[in-house]
Structures are given as C-alpha cells and as structure tokens.
Amino acid sequence: MAETTAETPLEGEESYEEITTFESEAVEGEYTSESLASRFGDPQPAAGTGRRKQSIARVRIVPGSGKWKINGRTLEGYFPNKVHQQEVNEPFKVLELDGRYDVIARISGGGISGQAGALRLGVARALNEADVDNNRGPLKKAGFLTRDDRAVERKKAGLKKARKAPQFSKR
C-alpha cells in the first residue's frame, strides 16, 4: 500500500492548487447573484445585529411593502412614542427606501430607548449588507453604522453612585 502525504492527493481527490485556482478564476461575461443585485438595484433579503446599552436586536429585512414585526407586534404597538418610531426609520429615509422592505426583528434586554437604538443599528447593518456599494456611503456619513458604546458606569465601593462621594466633613 502506497503512503499518502499532504502533497499527493488520494485517488479521485483534487489537489489544493487545483481547488484554489478554479475558485479564484472568474469567467468573463458571467455574473454572480451579488453583482446582478447591485447592477439592477433589486431589494435583497439581509440580516443585521444591533446593540445599544443592554439591548440586542436581531433584524432581518426582506423585500416587501414596509411592514414591521418587532417581537410579533407592529412598530406602533412596540414603540408608541413617535420619537422612537422615527429613530428606527431613519436608515430607510436616508437611503430613500421607505416601503421597500419588510422588517422582522427580535429585541431583548434594556429599556425602550436602548432597544430603539439597537434596532436602528441592526436595520442599518442589514441595509448595508443588502447592497454594500450603494448603501454604505450614505449610512456611514449619517453615522448609522457606528455602534454607540456608551453604557451605565458601575457603582464603586465607598461611593454613593458611580462618581458621587459621600459628604465630606473636616471636623
């Protein structure tokens, strides 16, 4: 029985060079699904994750009529405050894509404001993934792809709050 080494492929197997050269060669005139999508601007399904404070939003966008489902509820049902509704819609307004995608999101943790911020980041990341060439510039310029890492500072021992010290008395 012949010994096999890493350099010699087994019978019926391709060598590493054959696999890598075949995959890296692009056939002229042949389009991939990614290039077709960006060429014609068809809405593509995509997903993104957003985080803000203690909130995590897992977002999926699919071509549709602009419906929102957040933890099984509508946008107005989940965020009754108009400020939060506008905040999560901002990425669509910047790209002028209102009503072209349906949004399905699962949000957990944190409060209302943190959840709205997490959802906005998740939507922006999903839109960026759907069409990187056209969407990344405007989203980046508006600051929607940047994660806001501010969080509540922890309370320290010997202090009343994170930074508030007990009253000092000289005598």
Automatic annotation (TrEMBL):
<dbReference type="GO" id="GO:0003723">
    <property type="term" value="F:RNA binding"/>
</dbReference>
<dbReference type="GO" id="GO:0003735">
    <property type="term" value="F:structural constituent of ribosome"/>
</dbReference>
<comment type="similarity">
    <text>Belongs to the universal ribosomal protein uS9 family.</text>
</comment>
<keyword id="KW-0689">Ribosomal protein</keyword>
<dbReference type="InterPro" id="IPR023035">
    <property type="entry name" value="Ribosomal_uS9_bac/plastid"/>
</dbReference>
<dbReference type="Pfam" id="PF00380">
    <property type="entry name" value="Ribosomal_S9"/>
</dbReference>
<dbReference type="InterPro" id="IPR014721">
    <property type="entry name" value="Ribsml_uS5_D2-typ_fold_subgr"/>
</dbReference>
<dbReference type="InterPro" id="IPR000754">
    <property type="entry name" value="Ribosomal_uS9"/>
</dbReference>
<feature type="region of interest" description="Disordered">
    <location>
        <begin position="25"/>
        <end position="56"/>
    </location>
</feature>
<dbReference type="InterPro" id="IPR020574">
    <property type="entry name" value="Ribosomal_uS9_CS"/>
</dbReference>
<protein>
    <recommendedName>
        <fullName>Small ribosomal subunit protein uS9</fullName>
    </recommendedName>
</protein>
<dbReference type="GO" id="GO:0006412">
    <property type="term" value="P:translation"/>
</dbReference>
<keyword id="KW-0687">Ribonucleoprotein</keyword>
<dbReference type="GO" id="GO:0005737">
    <property type="term" value="C:cytoplasm"/>
</dbReference>
<dbReference type="InterPro" id="IPR020568">
    <property type="entry name" value="Ribosomal_Su5_D2-typ_SF"/>
</dbReference>
<dbReference type="GO" id="GO:0015935">
    <property type="term" value="C:small ribosomal subunit"/>
</dbReference>
